[in-house]
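S.,

Sequence below, as promised.
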Amino acid sequence: MDYQTLLAVLIGVYCLQAMALIITWYQSRNEDGTREWAAGGVCMAAGALVVLIASTIAHGEEIGQRMVPVTSAGIALIATGWLFLWAGIRRFVNHLDFSSHYLGLFFVLFYILLLQQQFFTLPLGWIVFCLATVVAIASSLILAELMVSRERASLISQFMMLCFGLTALLWGGRAALALLDMARPLGTLFDGLLMYQAVLVTVAVTLGMILMTTERVQKHLREQASIDSLTGLYNRRAFHDVSRAVIAAAERDKQPVALALLDLDHFKSINDTFGHGVGDKVLMRFANLAELTFRDQDILARFGGEEFVVLLSGADADQAMRALQRLRQRLETECIEYQGVCVPSTVSIGVSCRRRGKIDLHAMLEEADKALYDAKRAGRNQVIMYHLGDAVPAI
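The prediction came back faster than expected:
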């Protein structure tokens, strides 16, 4: 396949890439980076079409010189598209913004740079050098973003790093060749290799971006299915799923486990008196206090309404009681301001503990529920351990 045919194929691939990325953005508009990917695909496709039209019109040398501004505009669009891809990757994997205004400024400056060929009668190698340099730099920047991202260990990210690393290497080499020999004609064996690589990488990168977006959307869906939208804690279903692994590890390592049910006192009265907006703030404040009180390995969840549950891994009865008392006291001493009035809230807590042997989560929940009932019956704002039956009054 000759160089011109490869160029035509690449232009077609750019157009398909643009359509695929626009569809990806349209279907995942809330995902960071997809808008920049779509803009990059459009710039690259539009630029490639402009270059094709300019090269088709330019038959003679005189007309060819007249088409330099048009060709330069197409090349500048392609280069800007590469930087849009970098900005999209930057936002997608690291959530770092990059203003599109800078990319607009880059287009203008790069276009002016390319026009120097016409003013100073520079050879075609000047445009090749400028474009190849930008592609190599943009690919290197994308590679760097992927390497420092949290998702760098995923197969998709590693595949993308391989693609952009190869692109940076090959186009960096082409820029060096153009710099050493500006009069070097297009269509050599190395240029053909670059066209093959550009076609394959464009397809591969487009597929990679679609897969990354799909994976991110699926992750959000899983989180929505397992996370309580108000407090950001696990919901009941996720608590049971996550707790299985914690309990299995505790049984294997013969470690103690404590489970507590926590119920905010007189929560209905707070909603009726101050409104559900204030009630939601009370729930969020309690969830924040609980997250600050418990350890990272503890499993905290909202069971529904004003009821919460926590599974304390490796905690015996004394350790669990101390942690739960700290939470109860912190909640009691803090309040939410509403129209100049302090909205107080307290919590009643029932605890169940297992020291060794077989751990039955369902049985522990029932025991904690009975202890919670005793705490409420004893006057609320208390922590009671099942079996021991000792109420720890508010101080």
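The first strand starts at residue 257 and ends at 264.

Coffee later?
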